[in-house]
Amino acid sequence: MTEKILGLIPVDWRFELTSLPYVRKIIKSRWMPFLPIVLNLSVFTIILMAGFVGGVSAGNYNFGIMFVWIVWWLLLMMVMVPFFSRIWCMICPLPAFGEWLQRLGFMKVRNKLFGLNKKWPKALKNMWLVNFLFLGTTYTTGFLTTRPIATFILLMSIIIGSIVLMAVFEKRNFCKYIGCPVGGFLGLYSNMAVTEIRAKDPQICKDHKHKDCVIGNEKGHACPWMILPFDIGRNTYCGMCLECFKTCPYDNMAINLRPPATDLLVDKNRGLDEAWKAFIMLGIAIFFFLIMQGNMGFLKDWANAKTTEGYLTFVVLHSIFNLLLIPGVFFVFVYASRTLGNKEIPLKKLFTNFSYTLVPMGLIAWIAFSFGILFPNSSYVLHVISDPFAWGWDLFGTAHFPWTPFLTGVMPYFQIGTLLFGLVLSLDIGFKISKQTFQKRDEAVRGFIPIAAFLTAVTIFLIWLFTG
Amino acid sequence: MEKKQLMEIIAGILVLLATVGTIGAALLYDEHLWGGLRTIELTAQAPERGNWNIQEIHLVRGEPVRIKIRNIDTVSHGFAIPELGISLNGTGEIKPGNVGVIEFTPDKTGDFLFTCTTWCSTQHMQMTGRIIISEK
C-alpha cells in the first residue's frame, strides 16, 4: 500500500505542471531562465550600489541590507524553498558572470566550455565545505545584517570568487561544492519542496543511449550541475537550470507538483555531510534568534564584535553549539533508539537516517523565526524602495514612512502553529524513516520513541524560545 | 543576421542595461533631482566615527545653496546653523540612513558654526563645523 504524507497525500502523487502547454513552452525557451536572471541582476546592482554607498550606516534603512537579509531571506525560507525547491539557483545572478565566461556568451550553446575545466576532487564532492563556509559566514552576522558595506563585500566576494573559480573548475562546481554559502541548505531543504524536476517516463531515458542531457547537444548545455537528469532521486543537487528540458529529444523532462518532504524518504545517497547541515541549520536558527530577536544584549554585543574577547567567545560558542552540542545530544537519542529498536542496526546508519527528521523541523523553525522578522520589520521596505541609496529620493512617496510593526500581537500564534505543524511533519517523516531503517514494524515503533521525544523536546524549546 | 546572433546581441544589451544601465539611471535621476542649485553633500557620523566629512564650508552671500545631510551613522543626527536661525524642519532629526535637506540663501557674511542638534554620542558637542560666508 502506498504511504501517505501526513496520512493525506500519497507519497507518489504527482501533477505535471509542464503538461500545461504554455508552461512547457516557456521552460523550453532559451530566454528562460536568462530573463529572470537579468531582471534579478538589475535588483542586485541596486543592492550592491546601496551597500557600497551605504557604508556603515544602520542596516534597517539600507536597501541592500533590507533586500538581502529581510526580503530575500524571507522569500527564500517561506516561499521559494518550500514551494519551488532550488528556484533561487535558477534565477541567481551571482554566478552568472562566471557561467557566461565559461560559455563565452549569454544565450548561445557551447558545450566545450572556456576555462581550465578542472574536475572537483571526488573526496570533496559533498556538503562539508559549504557547511563550514555557511557556518563561517554566520560568524559575521553581526556585521552583515547591520553594515551595508559588509553585505557589499560578501556579495562582491561571491561574484568575483565565482568568476575566478568557474574559470578553473568545470560547470557549476562553484555553486555545488565550493563557494556558495547558502547552496548547502538550499539543497538539503529543497528536499522539502512541493515541486521537483524529474524524467516523465524513466523507460524512455533507459532506452535512449545517447543521454543528451548529460553530454549536451546543439539545443542545450550538458547538465551544468553534473547530475544525471534522467535519474534525479532527490532535489538536493538539481539547480533547476532547465537545460535538460532543452536537450531532451523526447521532451521527457517534467516539473511536477508533489507532496512535501518526499525526497527525505529516498533511502539513497544519505550522508553525514547532510546530517551536519541539518544540525548546523537548526543551531543557527536558534543562535540567530538569540542574537537578533532575543533579550540577551551581551550576545548581540559579542556578535557585533564590541570587544575582541566577546567576539571570539561568540565564534567558539556558536561553533561548539552547532558542530558538537546539537549532534552530540542527538547522538544520545539515536543511541537510545538503537537500544530500544534493534542493536544490530549500525549506529552510523541510524544516526544519518534519523538526522533527516531535522530537515522539516529546521525549515519550519526558520519559517517561524522569519515571522519574527516579517511582522516587526517589513515596513522598512517601504522606506528603502523609495530611497534605495539614502540620497534623499522619494520615488514612491514612502521615503518617510515610519517604522510600523504589524500583527506583532498575533505573531506568537503564527509561530506556534508553524512549529506544531513542523513537529507533526517531522514525526510523520521520522516514523517512515524509522520503518525504512528498522524494517520490522515493532522495532521501528520502539526505535522511534527516543527520536520522537527529541523532536518534541526541540519543538517545545523553540516555542518557548520564540514566544516565551 | 542569424536569429542566434541576434538573440546574443539582445541578451548582451539586456545585461548592460541591468548593470551599467541601472547605475547610470540612478546617477542621472539623482542629477536631475538635485541639479540646478549648488549642492553641498555633508555626511554625518558621530565624532568618534569620523564627524562631519566637511569641517569647513565656503558660501557666497546672495547665492542660493542646498545642503544635503546624509546620515550614514548608526544613530540619529541633526543639523543647524544657530547664528543664522537655520535648522531642519520637523523634529530636526535625521534617522540613520536618512537624508535631511536645507535650502537657503546666505544674507550676511561671517564665520558661523554649524552643529549636530541631536545628542548622538558622548562626544556630541564636538560634532561641529564652520560655515564661512563671504562677498562675491
Summarize the helices and strands and which ones pair or pack.
The complex is a heterodimer of chains A (468) and B (136).
Chain A: E1 4-5, E2 9-10, E3 15-16, H1 21-28, H2 34-54, H3 63-84, H4 87-91, H5 96-103, H6 128-138, H7 141-144, H8 148-168, H9 173-178, H10 183-189, E4 195-199, H11 202-207, H12 212-215, H13 243-247, E5 253-257, H14 272-293, H15 297-303, H16 308-340, H17 347-355, H18 358-377, H19 379-386, H20 411-438, H21 441-467
Antiparallel strand pairs in A: 1-2, 3-5, 4-5
Chain B: H1 3-34, E1 39-44, E2 56-60, E3 65-71, E4 80-81, E5 86-87, E6 99-104, E7 110-115, E8 128-134
Parallel strand pairs in B: 1-3, 2-8
Antiparallel strand pairs in B: 3-6, 4-5, 7-8
Structure description:
The complex is a heterodimer of chains A (468) and B (136). Chain A is 60% helix and 3% strand. With 468 residues, chain A is mainly alpha-helical. Chain A has two domains: 4-258, no CATH class; 276-467, no CATH class. In chain A, the strands form two sheets. In chain A, strands 3-5-4 form a three-stranded antiparallel β-sheet. Chain A starts with a strand and ends with a helix. The mean pLDDT of chain A is 94. With 136 residues, chain B is an alpha/beta fold. Chain B has two domains: 1-35; 39-134, Sandwich (Immunoglobulin-like), CATH 2.60.40. Helix content of chain B is 24%, strand content 30%. The chains are: A mainly alpha (468), B alpha/beta (136). Chain A binds chain B through residues 30-31, 34-35, 38-39, 41-42, 45-46, 49, 54-58, 60-62, 100, 105-108, 146, 383, 387-393, and chain B through 4, 7-8, 11-12, 14-15, 17-19, 21-23, 26, 29-30, 33-34, 49, 68, 70-75, 95-99, 101. Chain B: It holds the Pfam family Cupredoxin_1.
